Amino acid sequence: MSIELSAIEYRYRDATALAGIDLTIESGELLALLGPSGCGKTTLLRTIAGLEFPDRGRVRFEGRDVTALGARKRHVGFVFQHYALFNHLTVFENVAFGLRVRGWFRRPRRAELERKVGELLELVQLREFARRYPAQLSGGQRQRVALARALAVEPHILLLDEPFGALDARVRADLRRWLRDLHDRIHVTSVFVTHDQEEAFELADRIAVMNKGRIEQIGSSETLYTRPASPFVCRFLGEVNELAAAIHARWTGIDDERVVAFVRPHDLDFVPAERGEGARIESVRDLGATVRIEALDPRLARPLVALHDRARYEAAPLERGRLVVPSARRQVLFRGDEPLADTGARVGHVLRDLLLTQR
Ligand SMILES: Nc1ncnc2c1ncn2[C@@H]1O[C@H](COP(=O)(O)OP(=O)(O)OP(=O)(O)O)[C@@H](O)[C@H]1O
Question: What region holds the ABC transporter domain (predicted)?
């Protein structure tokens, strides 16, 4: 079932949470809402759920206007981080609850209920835990019970607010993969909120990056990463070196202009300097698969950060105090908030040139 949001605005008494959201989510899509704290992700999710009603704009499911319908009538399943399980009910009863709260006409009979709950527990791989209480489960298992309960109403739309927020890294990674499989198997349209870029990239078909109640950019992880629409998106998608620079007509056909170059640490190389000038290495930290190196160019206020992969580092180790020349394999340039289209090739890939012209 597709979801269409048009011109959605929402104000709390003293804060604008949504400042004009247009977003279409295709049927069967898994979409992530990604953004910093307070940007409006939860409010947007609650607006889709029918737990909040927008001041302006329309919500449509498969073309049908549901703006005025409450949560119960929208038949969506939702899992919120703090939407706790009932601790006095067993796993079975927690999941059955999702079915029992249905309207009288749609409530299943006992045998049917047992079969359905059994199926759902099978789906979330918790059949043998049916008689346990939430306190006897791990965090990841509890989260799966919450999902089974949300799925009990057979929703066409599944909404998840930071579903793995409180879990440790290993369990999060397992549950992500599991959720992606589940989503593909049950043909549901899913929207989940996260402020974790890695989680969004791994799970979602498309990602909507939000900032101050608006969507800055929407696209696949590849689009966001290689063609960020704004410096905000660039900064939000992980660590990045940011350099004020000038480009010259002789490289680009564009006259001198002030631009900002963004270079990801893994797109930056430090090559040992041949002459006695360059950036001086300040720290080298072994992160396992990669080595993180910081070097300060005398013209810059902050060190440049490069990630060398392990094999490369072992072939050419760099130690503190060594002088190096930074060189970028790839960079994204902005003039103010506007991306400079297609400049990568024309500017060339030697960051040194950009650094040399920095004012
Ligand atoms: N009940 C409320 N009353 C007043 N303002 C609120 C309320 N809930 C949220 N806000 C404000 O609305 C804005 C958006 O909040 P929202 O919870 O949607 O953001 P979020 O992106 O989900 O944040 P987080 O990642 O921290 O959960 C914030 O500025 C927040 O302070």
Answer: 3-237
Q: Domain holding 224: CATH number?
A: 3.40.50.300
**Same domain, yes or no, for 247 and 107?**
no
Which residue has the least CA distance to atom 16 on ligand 1?
Answer: 40
Provide the H-helix boundaries in the chain.
41-49, 71-74, 91-100, 110-123, 139-151, 169-186, 197-203, 221-226, 231-236, 249-252, 310-315, 343-347, 351-356
Q: Which of 41, 193, 199 to mutate to test the pocket of ligand 1 (most atoms within 8 A of CB)?
A: 41
Which residue owns the Cα nearest ligand 1 atom 25?
37
| First-to-final CA distance of the chain | 53
- In this structure, the residues whose C-beta lies within 6 A of any atom of ligand 1 are 12, 15, 17, 35, 37-43, 195
Q: Report ipTM (2 d.p.).
A: 0.94
Tens digits of residue pLDDT in 168-192: 777 778 878 888 888 888 889 999 9
Residues in the chain: 359
Q: What value does the mean pLDDT take over residues 303-313?
A: 92
Mean pLDDT of 82-95: 86
Measured distance CA(29)–CA(27) in Å, rounded: 6
Give the distance (Å) from ligand 1 centre to CA of residue 11: 10
- Could you tell me the strand order of the sheet in which 304-309 lies? 268-272, 323-328, 279-286, 290-296, 304-309
